[in-house]
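Okay, is this right?
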Amino acid sequence: MIGRRGFMGLGLAVAGAVPFVPLGTLAFAAREQPFLAVLADRRFRAGELFARQAEAHGLPVESIGDDFSRFWAERLHGRWQNLPLGLAGLTTFGPFICLQQLARDHGMKMLYQGKHRTLDNRLSEHVLQGPAHLVEAVSGGRAGEWPLGFAQSLAGSAHAGAACTKTLCVPMAGTPEDGVPLYSWLIVPRTRQA
């Protein structure tokens, strides 16, 4: 005997109105920030740490370098036209600035951004802007662990909150990233309350 929920789900699936999704999955999706992908530039130690932590939390990680045009053409452009989903990443400046502009054109906004760079091979500087809990997650760990804090914060369900800006300089942990600044960022639909 089919239950009421099964009957309703089956009826919708057969009618083609929406794809069949178990009700438990819908409830989970409503609680979580839906991400199309988390982009990571694994050429850098911080990018590799970020990607591994995001994967450990079940986030869909895509490895990219300076050229993300294939990802844009094959996965992102069409998806953002139909259903804007969140996108997060740890990349170099090129993908960061391009995605910031493309997001604006598709009803999305940059909710959080951080610039991470090496100063004189002994200090790393982090300039962070966004919801306080994201800024604290990135800045609150030990030196060199900021990529882990960022990935862990993305796995949480709420990205709203009071905005803040924070600049901090901490002793370098490990080797410098060849003088290349990295950018951590979170893009969400513009209609989302932040």
